[in-house]
Design a protein that fits this description.
Distance between the termini: 31 Å
Order of helices and strands: HEEEEEEEEEEEEEEEEEEEEEH
Strand content: over 45%
Number of strands: 21
């Protein structure tokens, strides 16, 4: 996405390099603005025209480290953004439209800067594939969103690229066949969901392929819940609580400078 930058530096020099935080007769921000933390460290610094940021804006943590760099277009609507961890490494990058995430966003590991996830937005709404990655580059998870709801296949993988889990979403809820594999790729669990609830026959397998246990579910409930061992119960808890959840960098106050 092309970003049109104004000659902010020239504009500033015309007013004097030390002139900050000015408003016009309509109380609109004009020129360079900055704000500091109580400890005196810079919170943000950027150039404004008619109360909208244009060109480069930088935001900082209270220890002085750069928190985000945003490059706004001449209308102050689109911004290319790079977000940083406190250690200075790149945490994520993408675009905003009027403070809403737009197009593809990519995130990186705090520890080794490897790619961790990538997702697609349309004006703040998740709309498209969301992929997560191991630090070796292999997929750890694949799913998709349509209008901010999960839709279509959901897959997770072991780090060696063997399928770990496979299910499917419809309108944000799990629906249809569900599979969990051992690291060997052999089935550990087969079942099905209906309207986000476990439904019908759920079968656990031993590593040699023989059936370990079979439970019958109806509306998410089974009369034989006590048969599940601790490992099997933990698997269900993990599935129920972490369906496609992931971490992304904290974006508190990245876009809108608070106060004047």
């Amino acid at each position: 996405m092309a970003i049109l930058l104004l000659g902010a530096e020239v504009f500033c020099r015309a007013q004097g390099d030390t002139l900050f935080n000015q408003t016009d007769t309509h109380n609109l921000k004009q020129g360079w603005w900055k704000k500091t933390y109580p400890n005196g460290k810079t919170m943000y610094k950027g150039f404004f025209k008619d109360d909208k940021p244009v060109g480069e804006m930088k935001r900082y943590y209270d220890n002085g480290a750069c928190k985000a760099i945003l490059l706004y277009d001449s209308a102050g609507e689109y911004a290319q953004a790079r977000i940083f961890y406190t250690n200075g490494k790149l945490a994520g990058e993408g675009c905003y439209f009027n403070a809403l995430k737009d197009s593809t966003w990519t995130y990186y590991s705090y520890y080794d800067h490897s790619l961790t996830s990538r997702e697609v937005f349309t004006r703040g709404v998740r709309n498209g594939p969301m992929n997560h990655y191991y630090n070796n580059g292999n997929f750890s998870e694949k799913l998709a969103w349509v209008n901010d709801k999960k839709e279509g296949p959901w897959e997770q993988y072991y780090s060696n690229n063997i399928l770990k889990l496979k299910g499917s979403y419809h309108n944000g809820k799990l629906e249809g066949a569900f599979l969990v594999n051992y690291e060997t790729g052999k089935p550990y669990l087969k079942g099905a969901y209906k309207n986000d609830l476990r439904d019908g026959s759920w079968i656990f397998y031993r590593e040699d392929g023989t059936v370990d246990m079979e439970l019958e579910y109806r509306n998410g409930k089974t009369a034989d819940e006590e048969k599940l061992d601790e490992k099997q119960q933990e698997l269900f808890r993990t599935i129920d609580e972490n369906q496609g959840k992931f971490e992304e960098p904290d974006e508190t106050n990245f876009l809108e400078p608070a106060g004047r």
